[in-house]
Amino acid sequence: xxxxxxxxxxxPVQFSSLPALxxxxxxxxxxxxxxxxxxxxxxxxxxxxxxxxxxxxxxxxVFLGFGSVFLLLWVGIYV
Amino acid sequence: MRLLITLALLGAVFAEDxxxxxxxxxxxxATSQIVKISTLYSFENSGAGPQSKVSIALTKEETAGxxxxxxxxxxxxxxxxxxxxxxxxDFSIYEVDLRTPVAKGAKVSIRVNLRITQVxxxxxxxxxxxxSQFVVFHTSAYVxxxxxxxxxxxxxxTTQGGKLLSATTVSPSKQETERVVYGxxxxxxxxxxxxxxxxxxxxxxxxxxxxxxxxxxxxxxxxIAVEEYIELVHKGAQLDxxxxxxxxxxxxxxxxxxxFQQFTTVLPAQAKDIYYRDEIGNISTSxxxxxxxxxxxxxxPRFPLFGGWKTSYVIGYNLPSEEYLYNxxxxxxxxxxxxxxxxxxxxxxxxRTKVLLPEHVKRVKVATPFVVDRRPDELxxxxxxxxGRLVIVxxxxxxxxxxxxxxxxxxxxxxxxxLREPLLASAFFFSLFLVIIVYARFDFTxxxxxxxxxxxxxxxHIGKLAQSVDSKQAAYDTLVEAAQQYKSTKNETELQDARxxxxxxxxxxxxxxxxxxxxxxxxxxxxxxxRASDLLKYDKTAFDAVDSYLRAVEKSTTKTAGPEEQQxxxxxxxxxxxxxxxxxxx
Lengths: 79, 586
Fold this sequence. Notes:
heterodimer; A: mainly alpha; about 65% helix; B: Immunoglobulin-like; 3 domains; ten-stranded mixed sheet; seven-stranded mixed sheet; 9 helices; transmembrane helix (chain A); transmembrane (chain A); Dolichyl-diphosphooligosaccharide-protein glycosyltransferase subunit TMEM258 (chain A); membrane (chain A)
């Protein structure tokens, strides 16, 4: 395809919104990480709940994953 | 066979181009390290019919250093196609395609621009710090031509204000302060040479970039990172003797010393996050000036470059992708410069441009404005990559500022692949969580501790007891609500249903309680279990009051809460307090 028929490429996330996104996503992720830690520390071998732990870990890691990519972009590591 | 020979002969007749050079006006600018030759040819078609191709000749020395050649119809900006042909009589031949045929007897004016590098020879080859640099330029007084030249003239421009030591005389020729003029000469036959030598002062630094490695890293998150690694060598007259910093500072020639002191690199206007450093680190003697249509970086290396000295550095900056990246669907195209400004009149011996594309690109196509050597593609793994990014490598030798042109890299990319990087990071975090989840399920105790186990189990039982008590209390609340409802609707069956549900819940929870109490007896002993068994009876007063309460509700005529509600709710509250007291004591 000829380049003159193409549009200018717009990035999916504006650079100006990166700090807010990073803080929000990493914040939620870290909060879930903290509650996961609390769950791990307080539960005994008789009342562990695998489903609850996995769900908490999954949501936390999705937030942390997106948050850390935006953090990398914010500090200038353009992945 | 005969027919074939005839055809071949006919072909030869048509292939032979017959032109006459009516006038040639050549200007040679030898003021910098690049020899810039601009020649205006006036050709006349002396052939039998219209012709659309004309040849120009270059001497072997010119061809050896030739970096860039362009041809255009004089006064017209459009570039003509120039193709190299087999050499004739020690001259290189370049064929210019005129696009439109020129009729028999008609004239055409063509401007040919040449950029020739590394042909100026320093003489003396070694100078001290206080001396100026002199160079010798070899050329031919007659313009090399494939056709007979009727009139011609050559002007060689030497340094402004510089000395002109000597120039070969080929009458009529004359030396002026800043130029040497050869000609006009009349009726010079084709392929005629007249070597001349011009020895003059040229203090412009002969700084050559032996290698320029240019990295263009494309990120679809909206950035194009450009980094250039540059090695500079001063290839002018070598510095003889020692270097004195004081003499250098006090030199009255100032910037006109043959040393390379500082230069300006012009970056695109959108350039940001500029860095300039070498192996030691950041070089603070640089400044960035933001102009209307460019960003100028004034660079002063750690030391002035004298003849034979070299230095290397890295300069890098970021560009927003929307200015250089285009897309339509999954088709993407990057349009950026193959080579960008370093300093004016730079000569690059080897340019290596590398384009790092995002991972998982397909069907990469490169379109360059001039011929480059496309090297095998490489893979470079960087942040959040799995297989590594595709690197397109292009090389070109002998590059001059005229090569600073745009090129296009087009490729296919799936937009959903953007998600791969955050998901990879998420997977990493999730695997950490999984390690913790699995680790927490291992039992690393060497000897079993029954007391501790019993303690943990009884904690669990007590938790369950509290849950059951909560359910019971909730059942009371629902009952009270149902009674309130009855007061307005007066629906008997609903009230009876609510009562049945309440009774069922209470019995069920009591059953659970007694079960847990017996479990508690095993783990925590009889004393605790006995105390816990009070939980079966704590709500006795409230439960006994249910009947009278409901009777009062049935009789009640008011639609709002009466004293009987208050009494019952109080009893329920008391029961709650009693339960909490028991739970607390266990």
